[in-house]
Amino acid sequence: MLLTTRYRDRSNVMALSWVTPVSLRPPMVAVSVQRGCLSHDYIERSGQFSLSVPGPSQIRQVRDAGLLSGKDVDSKFAEVGLKAIGGDALAVPLVAECLAYLECAVTEAYEVGEDHTLFVAEVVGAQADDGAFGESWLLPAAGRRPLHHLGGHLYSVLSGVTSAAPEEEEG
Ligand SMILES: Cc1cc2nc3c(=O)[nH]c(=O)nc-3n(C[C@H](O)[C@H](O)[C@H](O)COP(=O)(O)O)c2cc1C
Questions:
Q1: Topology at the third CATH level for domain 2-169
Q2: CA of 67 to the centre of ligand 1 (A)
Q3: Which atom of ligand 1 is nearest to the CA of 19?
Q4: CA 8, 11, 12 angle in degrees (round to 5)?
Q5: 14 or 140: which carries more pLDDT confidence?
């Protein structure tokens, strides 16, 4: 996942694995972001962030967005080779190359442990490549499947689907 932020006229992007849905009504997500990174600072100041779901062709950009800090470069978007596009709902940019997007307005923030903040946010905008995501991820050609971070330097894309629909819902 790529987390994007904006504060005044500066935008930033970072790699993020620690994210989960936490409510359906309204739709809400939570992200855990380490204190001290630039994205944390921008989320605190603006109360907003967006999430962009990359595919396997963005693997190097995801890695680099997770290695570099926006504190050390003029523009991390340019530095890692990602294009920023405008969102629908917020002033926070989205990552053009990605498959799906959530725009998020922070409602609560909890300091967790010694080093992270859990930001809980309402999803105020959502878009997806409709060839890649319908009611669920569709897993079309490999290039349009979401990139998963397995931990460390390892990533994967899902390779198959198994339905566990209750019998009465089956054709
Ligand atoms: C694949 C990947 C996943 C990551 N997930 C998280 C995460 O969930 N939370 C977090 O705080 N940092 C995570 N990081 C580390 C940040 O992306 C990294 O600290 C980044 O340099 C912060 O950038 P910034 O200072 O520009 O905000 C991850 C890094 C990688 C490579």
A1: Pnp Oxidase; Chain A (2.30.110)
A2: 7
A3: 8
A4: 135
A5: 14
